[in-house]
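#structure-requests
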Amino acid sequence: MKKTLLFLGVLLAVLTACGPTGKYADVKSAMDKMYAANEKYIIGLEKATTARDCANVINDFTNDVVVIIPEIKELEKKYSELDMKNNAYPPELAEYEKKFEEQSERMQKVAMSMAKYMMDKDVMAALQNMARSMEGK
């Protein structure tokens, strides 16, 4: 679970942005998509009242993110100077760092609240699927 949260945080940092303009307009666009997917995930988990709800939210998030991952990989190749995995935001993207930090904190809190469902077979399967999907397997 910690690896998943760390990966999501990193992914979140890579993709954060608003109003795609300027040199990194395509990066900002991808970051907006990831931010939206994360928001949907957080809100879904906040509203989940059963293990099945939780598993459905995780599966929906996975489906949303696997579409964005190839775009991110291409952007990482295109902009090799970016090192956002280590929170090294260029000035053009620095404003999004705080946005994703705040979201990451919320994500961690909601992940803790779903701990009661972690031993459920559907939730475990959804988390395993998410991990495999994000690794590209």
